[in-house]
Amino acid sequence: MLTNKEIQIRDPFIFPDHENGKYYMFGSTDKNIWGSGTGFDVYIGEDLAHWEGPFPVFRPKDNFFSNENYWAPEVHQYQGLFYMFATFFSEELQRRGTAILVSDSLTGPFEPHSDGIVTPKDWESLDGTLYIDEEGKPWMVFCHEWVQVEDGEVCAMPLSEDLKECAGEPQLLFCASEAPWATSFKHRARKSEHNYVTDGPFLYRASNGELLLLWASFVNNVYAQGIARSTTGKITGPWKHDDKPIYQDDGGHGMLFKTFDEELRLTLHSPNKTPLERPIFVKLEEEDGALHVVKE
C-alpha cells in the first residue's frame, strides 16, 4: 500500500465506485509529463489515504497518434461505459488537444474512441472535461491555452451523443484575466508581459442549484484554485468569479467529489513542481452554494 506522500501525480481525478466501496484515482502519472508519454495508471483505495497500485489503464499502441504530453485524464460514466478525456500532443497537428478513450471497466484497458483530437484542430487546447446539461446533451469544457492566446480561455463545445466528435462551434465562457484574483506573468519565450493561465476546468452542481466551474491559474506566480459561477445555471453562462481562490498554497487543477460518507472533498496536486507533485484532499463545507475549507 502507498500513502499520498509516496505518489507522484498531477491533475488527480477521483471516481468513487459506490458498488464496491473503492476510490479510483487517475491523473498524469508519467514521471516526466513534459516529455515522451508512457500512458496512464490508476490507484485504488478505500480511505483516500492508502492506495494499491499503480495499475496501468492505458498504454498506446504503435499506431496511436501521440507520443508525448499525456496529461490530465478524467474518467466519466456515460451510457453504461467509462470514457476517459485526456490531453495529448498530436504529432500530425503539432498541437495539444483533448481526445476521448473508452473502456467497459474502471481499470481499463482504455482504447481510442474519438478519431484523435476532438478540440479545434488549429487551437492549442488542453484539460477537456465532460458536462451533461439539463437536457441531457453532452459538452466538452476545455482550456484554450495561454501559449496561443496569451489570456487563457475556458470554452465549451457541444459533443455528439456518442462522444466521438464535436457537434458545434466552441463558445467562450471567460478569459483568465476576468477573475479578480488571477495575476499575469512574463514568460522568457513570449513577448507579452500579460500572460494569464487557465487550467483544469471541472463542473459541479451545488445543492442550491448553482452551477460552479473550478479552474486553476496563478497568483503572483503561485498555482491556485478558483471558482466561477454561472449566473443562469447554464453552461453558456454568463460566469461570475469568486473574489478569492479557494486554495492558493501552490496547488491546483482540482475537482470535487463526495465521499462514501457524503462529505465534500476537493482534490488537487501540490506543489506544482515536478517531481514533487502529490495528491491533496481538502475537506469542504457547502452553504447556499458557497464553498468553505474545513480546518482539520
Automatic annotation (TrEMBL):
<comment type="pathway">
    <text>Glycan metabolism; L-arabinan degradation.</text>
</comment>
<protein>
    <submittedName>
        <fullName>Glycoside hydrolase family 43 protein</fullName>
    </submittedName>
</protein>
<dbReference type="GO" id="GO:0016787">
    <property type="term" value="F:hydrolase activity"/>
</dbReference>
<dbReference type="InterPro" id="IPR050727">
    <property type="entry name" value="GH43_arabinanases"/>
</dbReference>
<dbReference type="InterPro" id="IPR023296">
    <property type="entry name" value="Glyco_hydro_beta-prop_sf"/>
</dbReference>
<keyword id="KW-0326">Glycosidase</keyword>
<keyword id="KW-0378">Hydrolase</keyword>
<dbReference type="Pfam" id="PF04616">
    <property type="entry name" value="Glyco_hydro_43"/>
</dbReference>
<dbReference type="InterPro" id="IPR006710">
    <property type="entry name" value="Glyco_hydro_43"/>
</dbReference>
<comment type="similarity">
    <text>Belongs to the glycosyl hydrolase 43 family.</text>
</comment>
